Amino acid sequence: MDSIIEFFQNKEWEVVHSFEIDEREAQYEDYKALSLSDESETVLSEYEKGIYKHQWMSIKEFKDGNNVCVSTSTSSGKTLIFNISGIEVISNNPSAKILAIYPLKALGSEQELRWGEVLKKSGLQSEVGRIDGAVPQSEREKIIKNSECVNENETPLRKN
Fold first, then answer.
1. Residue 32 has what DSSP assignment?
2. Are strands 28-29 and 51-52 parallel, antiparallel or unpaired?
């Protein structure tokens, strides 16, 4: 911590207050208590210890119809919260679409891959489309149309 404070002081920034938070042991919760769709449970089945407590609480709040904002450190499981919430929406409303907006191309590429993996694992046969500044306007509607999770009868397409 001292090197960070020194850095700020060398830049002539005033450090008003600082504190350190001790590392804590991870707390897990059983996702089965959330009564999720089969698709979400399929994705979560690899989490033998359960999911992190903040993930469980966030998904519960989402399922209860509340807005959720999650702010945690890097690689702490925010994407899984978003993925499971999205799978729940699609599972309950096959004509729904998830619009995920990311600030950087690199993050967008990573998240595109993760969405594809989690949808495939869930059993929902849906295409993930990606639009960034390099995609011409004329191609964007086609990408959106090709990223649907429904057939002509508006029923979900699932693996047999």
1. G
2. antiparallel
Supply 104's token pair. 């950087």
The tokens for 72 are: 């945690």
pTM of the model: 0.61
Average pLDDT over residues 12-37: 87
CA distances from 104 to 2, 51, 107, 138 (A): 31, 27, 5, 22
Contacts of 147 (CB under 8 A, 6+ apart): 97, 126, 127, 128, 129
φ, ψ of residue 132 to 5 degrees: the values are: -135, -175
At residue 49, what is the residue type? K
From 40, 38, 66, 62, select the one nearest 51 (Cα to Cα). 40
